[in-house]
């Protein structure tokens, strides 16, 4: 669709050079489109942006209402509408004059997406599954193969949206987090480009329409995935509801533990989320200590206490639990060794001494 007849003829000519494409219909006015468009069967719409009456952005929204699976490609002489175009989930944004090579890139991208749709749509017995590891780094696997991210920012954007899964995140919040040092107008364009890359990547894996934009906010909504951080929160929530910890799943989480939340990533926005999730993991360890204490499994209790100290080496509470444990199993030598090591660590790293309660407990077992 283009309000300039010569431009429309030129575009049809370029498209017809591709054997895989059939031009169903062309329009120069919104009136004609509204009259005939709903009865047409087509997969892709090439739209000029600046047109009288309804502009291309408005036409695109209308076509998406008719069929949300229609691919939108904007064809214009102006760069200014790129941001709005990506917000409408357009597949590409072509600047006039269009070369055959550039148009071919667009056609190839659409054919790839159509192929994936046709391949996955008829029968979905088993949905594609993502495995997302957050502890120790951020690794995303699809069918046990690492996902290839088009850019580093594409991966970071997915990590950011995933850490806010099912929550609306204001666009400016994302820009402040990922493009803090970039001029705002440029950062906004980079955000929308990165969102487009991310949508394409996820769609190729069978996760279409999982990123939505509305009222100035983005939201990522995913189903059918496995994630260690989500398993951890689910386990802790289960204990809150039932009063009991799922020991088998908790042990599995601990065995697969690779390190602190997204530890290998140098993203400025991670700190608060990482602290929150690392505290959650510590809480899981404390719950397991309570469980093994209650069932008198001293061996497993010792394992979890040592892991807790490894995870958070400055915890007076855990050291006291470990001293009491060694006292209970008549292993005072280990209790003394643990306390002395803890005291040295605090002095060297933080310049402080153990809490008075910890020191008094140690003195009490030393006197006995």
> Could you give the order of the helices and strands?
HHEHEHEHEEEHEHHEEEHHHHHHH
What is the CA-atom radius of gyration, in angstroms? Answer: 29 Å
As residue ranges, the low-confidence spans are 120-128
How is the CATH topology of the largest domain named?
Arc Repressor Mutant, subunit A
Query: How many strands, what sense, and barrel or not for the largest sheet?
Result: 4 strands, mixed
Average pLDDT over all residues: 87
Please give the number of β-strands.
10
The largest sheet has its strands arranged as 6-5-4-10
- Strand proportion, as a percent range, falls in 5-15%
Going by CATH, the architecture of the largest domain would be: Orthogonal Bundle
CATH superfamily of the largest domain: Winged helix-like DNA-binding domain superfamily/Winged helix DNA-binding domain
Class based on secondary structure composition and strand pairing: alpha/beta
Shape, principal axes of CA atoms: elongated
Compute the number of helices: 15
**Can you tell me the CATH class of the largest domain?**
Mainly Alpha
Number of domains: 2
Helical percentage: 55-70%
Distance between the termini: 91 Å
